[in-house]
């Protein structure tokens, strides 16, 4: 007998919920946890460091300002969001836990293909395809 394709856990006591997520991750499938706020998301990340120290944990925080606000989003929040989106677009090897908040889960994000097209990988010691680099820079608005 196999388990359900999707499992929804709710109402678990704080602290024990991290243990449940670690158990689900051990079954080999990706796990999504939507926390009520950033504080709870960080508490979950700390608890997962104890219950699943080797787990790949991605965090996707909500924006820290409103659209059309006079201030720009915090650079750390922007970087964390883009790193997580880029990792998901490129494919995370093996099972992982994605931690996010309710606000972040309801906000629109760029399409997966847009994120794939907006990245260029260069490795130390590897040759760079000059035409691919030129194409990437042209797509990103450089002339």
Question: What can you see in these coordinates?
Answer:
The protein has 143 residues and is mainly α. The chain has a domain of 94 residues. 43% of the residues lie in helices and 10% in strands. It is built from 6 helices and 3 strands; from the N terminus they run αβαβαβααα. It has a 3-stranded parallel β-sheet with strand order 1-3-2. Helix 1 crosses helix 2. The longest helix has 16 residues. The termini are far apart.
Write a brief structural summary:
The chain has 143 residues and is mainly alpha-helical. It has a domain at 16-109. 43% of the residues lie in helices and 10% in strands.
Which SSEs are present, and which pair or pack?
Layout: H1 16-26, E1 31-35, H2 38-51, E2 57-60, H3 75-90, E3 97-101, H4 102-105, H5 112-117, H6 130-139
Parallel strand pairs: 1-3, 2-3
Helix pairs in contact: 1-2
Portion of residues in helices? 40-55%
Largest sheet: 3 strands, parallel
Order of helices and strands: HEHEHEHHH
Order of strands across the main sheet: 1-3-2
pLDDT under 50 segments (min length 5)?
Answer: none
Estimated share of beta-strand residues: 5-15%
The assigned structural class equals mainly alpha
Tell me how many strands there are. 3
Head-to-tail CA distance between termini: 58 Å
Mean pLDDT: 89
Q: How would the global form be characterised?
A: globular
């Amino acid at each position: 007998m196999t388990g359900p394709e999707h499992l929804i856990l709710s109402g678990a006591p704080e602290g024990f919920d991290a243990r449940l997520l670690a158990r689900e991750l051990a079954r080999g499938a990706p796990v999504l946890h939507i926390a009520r706020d950033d504080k709870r998301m960080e508490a979950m990340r700390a608890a997962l460091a104890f219950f699943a120290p080797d787990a790949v944990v991605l965090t996707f925080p909500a924006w820290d300002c409103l659209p059309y606000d006079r201030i720009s989003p915090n650079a750390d929040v922007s970087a964390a969001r883009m790193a997580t989106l880029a990792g998901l677009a490129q494919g995370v090897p093996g099972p992982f836990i994605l931690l996010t908040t309710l606000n972040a889960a309801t906000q629109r994000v760029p399409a997966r293909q847009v994120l794939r097209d907006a990245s260029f990988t260069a490795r130390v010691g590897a040759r760079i395809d000059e035409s691919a680099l030129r194409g990437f820079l042209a797509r990103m608005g450089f002339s």
